[in-house]
Structure formats: C-alpha cells, structure tokens
Write a structure and sequence with these properties.
Elements lengths: L2 H30 L4 E5 L15 E7 L3 H14 L4 E3 L13 E7 L8 H11 E12 L5 H18 L7 H7 L3 E9 L9 E8 L5 E3 L5 E3 L2
Parallel strand pairs: 1-2, 1-4, 2-3, 4-5
Antiparallel strand pairs: 5-7, 6-7, 8-9
Helix pairs in contact: 1-2
C-alpha cells in the first residue's frame, strides 16, 4: 500500500463530487438505466455507481484493486448494497470463470488500468457471448492539437488523478473484439480542457466460439 494510493482514496469523493454535480452523475444514470442480469463492475472505487443499479440486476459483483479504496467500498456496500459481492482484483486478472456475466461496467476505469488491452481481453472473457460492456471513459481527443496537449500534460494527470488522459480507449475496445453498439462523444464536465474528451456507450462481446491460444490465454475468433 503506497502513500499515494491512500491519499487518492481519501480525496477521491471530494474530487469526483464537483464533476458529478456538473453532469457526470447524469451520464452515469443514463448509462446504467435499465441494466439487469448478472452484472460485473470493475474498478468500483468508493462505490459511486451503487445507487444506480435497479431491481433488474440479479447479482452484482464489484472489483477494486487498491486496498485503501477497497476498504471504503466495503463500508459502503455493507450499508447500501449488502447483497453485492466485493473482490480485490485488478481488471487485468479477474478471478471469474469464462462467460460469467451478462453485463460489465467500466466508468472512468480503463484510463487507469496498467494494461488496457489485457483488461479488455479479460472483460471479453468473463462476459457471456453477446454480453454487453457499458463504458464511460475520458479518452484521447480526435483533435490533433488537443491530443498533443494531452500528451504534454499527461504526466500531471497521472500525478493528480492516477490515470492517463490520452488513451485511445474506443479503438482499444474494438481491437479487443467487441462490436460497438452505440457511442456518444461528449466532454467530462468541470475538468481541465485536456481531460474533457469523453466517450460513453455500449459494446457487445462476440458470439463466436472461444478457444485457447498456445500461451493458455482465452481467445475468441471473430
């Protein structure tokens, strides 16, 4: 456990509250409206999405890799969602069987994972064929001038927000084998300009039969 992780967990709710009030909260609600079935949320943090899951959710599984965040999440789950299951696990190494979930949720997480392609492969693995990935992520700008600024300022974003502001996340989702069903290009409210580019939407896990590659990783032909 690092001092940086402890400080980030202590200040996270205060950092995100202004952004949520500025419009991110409404985006979360829209993204999760009507979600149901067996749901996995990665990088749950302090549990900001918990009030947004409705009665159609049959089971809710939450993961969080950082111990300071996990402690806060567990306290909130005990009071707000006692039936949810919580696991300490990184998105790159999910402790679940193949085809375990109907829906996977990632909100402001894929910017901060250590290995984004691997995390997306894991999400694809644990989703049932035809399962849905719901995402809300700030991303690399399509404007070359702003994208270059994101590259220059990424060091600061890593210090303050513990994530990268310049990842081509939508392209990574497609590269992982998902079919993007819908996507909305927007801006992260109340944020510095170089952090604002945002995408929200859903992508579908492939229905093709899975196999094993020579390295033992789960794969699926597309």
């Amino acid at each position: 456990m690092t001092l940086r992780a402890q400080l980030f967990a202590m200040t996270y709710n205060a950092q995100i509250a202004r952004v949520d009030k500025g419009g991110l909260g409404a985006m979360r609600r829209e993204l999760l409206a009507g979600v149901g079935g067996h749901v996995l949320e990665i990088g749950t943090g302090t549990g900001g999405n918990l009030p947004l899951y409705g009665e159609a959710v049959e089971s809710l599984t939450l993961t969080e890799p950082e111990t300071p965040m996990l402690r806060r999440l567990e306290r909130r789950v005990r009071s707000d969602a006692p039936e949810a299951k919580v696991f300490r696990a990184p998105a790159e190494d999910l402790p679940f069987d193949d085809d375990s979930f109907d829906v996977a949720v990632s909100t402001l997480v894929l910017c901060g994972v250590n290995d984004q392609p691997r995390a997306l492969r894991e999400l694809r693995r644990v989703l049932r064929p035809g399962g849905e990935l719901l995402f809300l992520e700030h991303v690399r700008s399509e404007d070359p001038v702003l994208a270059r600024k994101q590259d220059r300022m990424n060091w600061l974003n890593r210090i303050v927000a513990c994530c990268d502001c310049n990842r081509p996340t939508l392209a990574s989702i497609v590269d992982a084998g998902f079919a993007v069903a819908n996507v909305r290009h927007d801006e992260l409210p109340k944020a510095p300009k170089f952090v604002r580019p945002l995408v929200a939407g859903s992508a579908i896990a492939p229905v093709a039969e899975r196999g094993r590659d020579p390295r033992g990783a789960t794969t699926a032909s597309t």
